[in-house]
Amino acid sequence: MTRTTYYVASTLDGFIADEHDALDWLFRQQIDDDGPMGYPAFISGIGALLMGSTTYEWVRTHDDVAGGWPYEQPCWVFTHRDLPRIEGADLRFASGDVAEVWPEVLAAAGGSGVWVVGGGGLASQVAAAGLLDEVIVSIAPVALGAGRPLLTEALDLRLVDLARNGDFACARYDVVRPTG
Question: How far apart are CA 72 and CA 41, in angstroms?
Fold first, then answer.
C-alpha cells in the first residue's frame, strides 16, 4: 500500500527555510545518514515525489549542494508559472488541485511511497485533500524567528516514533483523519 509522507527538516520554531528561502541553518547541523529516520533508508522506499515551485527552484539553483538533480523518481512540481526544465529529470509540472493528478502519481509510484518534498503549503494541500498519511520531521536546534512555515494549515497528528539523530530530534507522526 502506498503511503504519502511529508519528510522534512524544521527549525525548533517551525520553519523549513528562512525568509530568503535559505537553508544555511540546516547544513550547519550534524546528522547520521544511516541513523534513525535517515535519508537513504527513507528515499529507498519512494516511487514518486511532489514538490512546490520554491523547493524546485532551490534544488535547481543549488546543484553545488545537491550534486545536480538528485532524484531518479518522477517528480510533480506544483506551480502557477513557467519554470525551466532540468535535462534528464523526470519532471511533470502541474497546477491546481493535487487530487487531479493523484491517480497518475499513484500509478508512477508503483506501490512505493510518495514523498511530499516541500514546502509547507503543498504539504498542507495534500493533507487537506486527505492524501497525506504521515509526517516525518527532523527538528534542528535552531530558531529563526521567521521564514517558510512547516505547515500552513491546521493538522492533527499522532506521534508514533521519536529518536535522536545527531543534532536533530526526529519524530514520525501519523496523520489523524476526521471520522464521519
Answer: 15
The answer to whether 20 and 42 have CB atoms below 8 angstroms apart is: no
- Cβ-based neighbours of 67, under 8 Å, separated by 6 or more: none
In 3D space, the residue among 33, 41, 39, 79 whose CA is nearest the CA of residue 60 turns out to be 79
Nearest CA among 79, 80, 77 for reference residue 105: 77
> 98-109 vs 120-128: helix axis angle to the nearest 10?
90
Contact status, residue 146 vs residue 22, Cβ threshold 8 Å: no
Residue 180 has pLDDT above 80, yes or no: no
Distance of alpha carbon 61 from alpha carbon 176, whole angstroms: 36
Rounded to the nearest integer, the mean pLDDT of the chain is 94
Q: Taking the mean position of all CA atoms in its chain, how far away is CA 143? A: 20
